């Protein structure tokens, strides 16, 4: 039974080999029949990969310990949800998920790309297929999840307890949808380089696919951050850990790509740059996969360190990054550049955005890889921590954030910075008021905190100003403005919403970092402590028996002004006997946008060690991420994209001009 | 401005920007990159009181002392040198005597190390990488699986 999964994977590899060669040759020879192979082969490859994945999932669900992978990472007593999510809670399974999502995106291109020029479609699918082949080989040669054990053990070794959480069901699939989603724009770029031309259909296609990947990656990173926050029990949400950076770099580059793709789509300028950025973004995704999967880093994410795997992924990395960049160097000059613009214009603003974002990506890149490089060259061990990123990344981000509200208010081609500044007067006044009010409330103790709040308000009101200006609020009758507002293209709402989300995230970060308080103490039952005006009573500790763990659960009460119980909070230390591991399950009470966070340590003579945090506005960090996702999704639903993509006429070369968004 | 001048202005603007970013990166790397120290490294390194570092090593046997109100003191050693660490907070689940540990904090004016976070082994197979490698170099590594 399980062998079917293995065979399906081998078949998918064989199909991938066909997918990467036949259509490509067909596209060179202009042979319609050879190019027509691409679609069905891609779909078949997807079906077989899905089958393989489904069979591994079945093996987990039925606790088939004759599979080494299941034995190492599962346990018969584990709840069903964690049995299933455990499929990708290990190296082999997560690589299978990776390649499964890759074939999924390939299938999407095959289905939705029927209207693309045939040679472009064939080449794109071939490139997509070649990435698939590399990873199928990687799985089959170094990380086969279908390796059998004989005799089969009776019981499994259980999943790492830190991963036994709902977060594992959401974070990796979202993150991979983002990582791997960038493979589509990569494949389009490489195809354009192979073909030697960029046409309108190409430009129209890259943006939505980038947007899809970006939405998922945003969700994946936000979810991962929240998961680390509540699961690790340190109350931190971002550690500048190399593994986090590995997912953050493609996000930064992808955000830059998203913006430069707008210029390319609307003004057909920055073509070569967009193409390069698409290649770099997916290269950073591959680099992230390498960093996490090769075991060069030790972290919760590195499930196993096996040098042969590292070398294999490094080869894949060099092949694709080196290959695509070499192709770029050879062919980029043959592509035509178009669309001139003044420095002060929408295009200029987006170029500036790209400059900031790619430089920021570079600093994160250096901070992440420099220690590895130094160690490889000289053997010295250094560790680059938050101080480095605070000194490089933040100074780059702050000016970018200040400039964000200007961008959408500038006209294409030639903008008027003064007029944009005048329109932003209200946002500026609101931000200034926020700075003053904050400074007054905290007695001027922290200028950075006050300015941070101002920046967040500036971003949020600035985003709304864009909508108001485009609706003509103040210039026309309110009823007319309302009708115009309703009629604005969805991509305009998408932009405003995404920028609003950015402001929310900034507000959450400033709130949690600058205004958070914490205290550590030992508590005896019935003792009451106070933190930032919140009175918390420690009641007792109760032992609780879970399905595959023992809990030592402490009960706390958040007290109201009259001593009544406003909220009950449970915080526990959990012991997993199979792995002999403890985990901390923090107790969190959400009050508005803020959270009270309690984690407990051991019981000493003077009582239970308790650490409490008050984190104002902390939920906005991830809430802002959700708003950004909503903005991206809204932009995807834009009529322009729906009309544009399936237009059958475009095949004859008569491309319908895109509807101008304001 | 002519087109040529404009283009030059844009190019120089971009270069100046990249230069500033590079400068920032170098300053940051120069100052903050060496972030991890073993007790033995501190003899020769110039670490100022108040400068934030990571200090790694093994928790010395018999050195863990619990004080009042969740304060713990222990000694971090690489067998040659030993540093006394004070920490207030929740110790990680696998914090033990004679196990690898990384603490983060700074030296106080009195020469004692005050940590605000302590990382220990994550599970039985995981030891902070810097510590594991340093111990292997010094021949103190015992793999206990």
Automatic annotation (TrEMBL), chain A:
Family listed: Belongs to the CcmF/CycK/Ccl1/NrfE/CcsA family.
GO cellular component, one term: plasma membrane
GO BP annotations listed: cytochrome complex assembly
Major subcellular site: membrane
Residue span(s) of domain Cytochrome c assembly protein: 88-294
Location in the cell: Cell inner membrane
Keyword annotations from UniProtKB, A to Z: Cell inner membrane, Cell membrane, Cytochrome c-type biogenesis, Membrane, Transmembrane, Transmembrane helix
Domain Cytochrome c-type biogenesis protein CcmF C-terminal, chain residue ranges per copy: 314-639
Stated name of the protein: Cytochrome c-type biogenesis protein CcmF
Pfam families for this protein: CcmF_C, Cytochrom_C_asm
Summary of the function given for this chain in its UniProt record: Required for the biogenesis of c-type cytochromes. Possible subunit of a heme lyase.
Membrane topology listed for this record: Multi-pass membrane protein
Highest taxon listed in the record's lineage: Bacteria
Tagged with keyword Manganese: no
Record's keyword annotation contains S-adenosyl-L-methionine: no
One Gene Ontology molecular-function label: heme transmembrane transporter activity
UniProtKB/TrEMBL annotation, chain B:
Subcellular localization, as worded in the UniProt entry: Cell membrane; Membrane
Membrane-protein topology: Single-pass type II membrane protein
Extracellular compartment residues: 29-145
Protein name according to UniProt: Cytochrome c-type biogenesis protein CcmE
Keywords: Cell membrane, Cytochrome c-type biogenesis, Heme, Iron, Membrane, Metal-binding, Signal-anchor, Transmembrane, Transmembrane helix
Family classification: Belongs to the CcmE/CycJ family.
Example of a GO MF term: heme binding
Organism whose genome encodes this protein: Aquamicrobium defluvii
GO biological process, one term: cytochrome complex assembly
GO cellular component terms, A-Z: plasma membrane
InterPro entries the UniProt entry points to: CcmE, CcmE-like_sf, NA-bd_OB-fold
Job of this protein: Heme chaperone required for the biogenesis of c-type cytochromes. Transiently binds heme delivered by CcmC and transfers the heme to apo-cytochromes in a process facilitated by CcmF and CcmH.
UniProt topological domain (Cytoplasmic) ranges: 1-7
Organism phylogeny: Bacteria, Pseudomonadati, Pseudomonadota, Alphaproteobacteria, Hyphomicrobiales
Positions annotated to bind heme: 122, 126
């Amino acid at each position: 039974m399980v062998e079917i999964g293995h065979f399906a994977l081998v078949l998918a590899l064989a199909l991938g080999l066909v997918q990467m060669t036949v259509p490509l040759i067909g596209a060179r020879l202009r042979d319609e029949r050879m190019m027509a192979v691409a679609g069905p082969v891609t779909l078949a490859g997807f079906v077989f990969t899905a089958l393989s994945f489904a069979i591994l999932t079945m093996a987990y669900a039925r606790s088939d310990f004759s599979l080494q992978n299941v034995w190492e990472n599962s346990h018969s007593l584990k709840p069903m949800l964690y049995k299933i999510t455990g499929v990708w809670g290990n190296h082999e399974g997560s690589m299978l998920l990776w390649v499964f999502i890759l074939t999924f995106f390939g299938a999407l291109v095959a289905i939705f790309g029927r209207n693309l020029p045939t040679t472009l479609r064939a080449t794109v699918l071939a490139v997509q297929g070649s990435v698939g082949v590399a990873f199928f080989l990687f799985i089959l040669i170094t990380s086969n999840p279908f390796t059998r054990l004989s005799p089969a053990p009776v019981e499994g070794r259980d999943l790492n307890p830190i991963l036994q959480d709902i977060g594992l069901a959401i974070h990796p699939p979202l993150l991979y949808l983002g990582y791997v989603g960038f493979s589509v724009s990569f494949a389009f770029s490489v195809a354009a380089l192979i073909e030697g031309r960029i046409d309108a259909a190409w430009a129209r296609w890259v943006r939505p696919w980038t947007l899809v990947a970006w939405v998922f990656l945003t969700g994946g990173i936000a979810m991962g951050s929240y998961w680390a926050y509540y699961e690790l029990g340190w109350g931190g949400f971002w550690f500048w850990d190399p593994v986090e950076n590995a997912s953050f770099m493609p996000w930064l580059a992808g955000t830059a790509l998203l913006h430069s793709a707008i210029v390319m789509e609307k003004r057909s300028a920055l073509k070569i740059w967009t193409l390069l950025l698409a290649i770099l973004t997916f290269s950073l995704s591959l680099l992230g996969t390498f960093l996490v999967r090769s075991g060069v880093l030790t972290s919760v994410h590195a499930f196993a360190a096996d040098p042969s795997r590292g070398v294999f992924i490094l080869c894949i990395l060099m092949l694709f990054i080196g290959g695509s960049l070499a192709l770029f160097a050879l062919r980029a000059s043959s592509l035509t550049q178009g669309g001139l613009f003044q420095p002060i214009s929408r295009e200029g603003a987006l170029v500036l955005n790209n400059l900031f974002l790619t430089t920021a990506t570079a600093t994160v890149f250096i901070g992440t890889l420099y220690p590895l490089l130094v160690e490889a060259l000289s053997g010295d061990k250094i560790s680059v921590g938050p101080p480095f990123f605070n000194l490089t990344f933040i100074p780059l981000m702050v000016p970018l954030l200040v400039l964000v509200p200007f961008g959408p208010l500038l006209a294409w081609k030639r903008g008027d910075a003064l007029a944009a500044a005048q329109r932003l007067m209200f946002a500026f006044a609101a931000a200034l008021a926020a700075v003053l009010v904050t400074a007054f409330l905290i007695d001027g103790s922290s200028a950075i905190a006050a300015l941070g709040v101002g920046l967040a308000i500036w971003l949020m009101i600035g985003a709304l100003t864009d909508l108001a200006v485009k609706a003509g609020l103040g210039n026309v009758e309110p009823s007319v403005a309302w009708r115009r507002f309703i009629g604005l293209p969805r991509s305009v709402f998408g932009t405003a919403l995404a920028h609003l989300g950015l402001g929310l995230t900034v507000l959450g970060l400033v709130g949690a970092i600058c205004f958070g308080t914490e205290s550590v103490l030992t508590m005896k039952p019935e003792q009451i402590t106070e933190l930032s005006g919140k009175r918390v009573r420690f009641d007792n500790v109760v032992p609780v028996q879970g399905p595959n763990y023992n809990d030592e659960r402490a009960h706390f009460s958040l007290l109201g002004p009259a001593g009544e119980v406003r909220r009950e909070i449970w915080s526990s230390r959990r012991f997993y006997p199979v792995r002999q591991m403890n985990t901390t399950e923090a107790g969190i009470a959400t009050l508005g946008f803020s959270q009270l966070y309690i984690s407990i340590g051991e019981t000493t003579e003077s009582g239970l060690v308790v650490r409490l945090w008050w984190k104002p506005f902390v939920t906005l960090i991830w809430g802002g991420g959700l708003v950004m996702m909503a903005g991206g999704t809204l932009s995807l639903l834009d009529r322009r994209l729906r009309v544009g993509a399936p237009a059958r006429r475009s095949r004859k070369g008569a491309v319908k001009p895109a509807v101008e968004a304001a | 401005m002519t087109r040529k001048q404009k283009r030059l202005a844009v190019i120089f603007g971009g270069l100046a920007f990249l230069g500033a970013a590079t400068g920032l990166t170098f300053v940051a790397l120069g100052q903050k990159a060496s972030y991890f120290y073993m007790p033995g490294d501190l003899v020769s390194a110039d670490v100022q009181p108040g400068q934030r570092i990571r200090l790694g090593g093994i928790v010395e046997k018999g050195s863990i002392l619990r004080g009042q109100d969740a304060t713990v003191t222990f000694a971090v050693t690489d067998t040659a040198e030993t540093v006394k660490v004070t920490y207030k907070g929740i110790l990680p689940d696998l914090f033990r005597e004679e196990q690898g540990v990384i603490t983060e904090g700074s030296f106080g004016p009195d020469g004692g190390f005050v940590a605000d976070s302590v990382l220990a082994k994550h599970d039985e197979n995981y030891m902070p990488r810097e510590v594991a490698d340093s111990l292997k170099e010094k021949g103190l590594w015992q793999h206990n699986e």
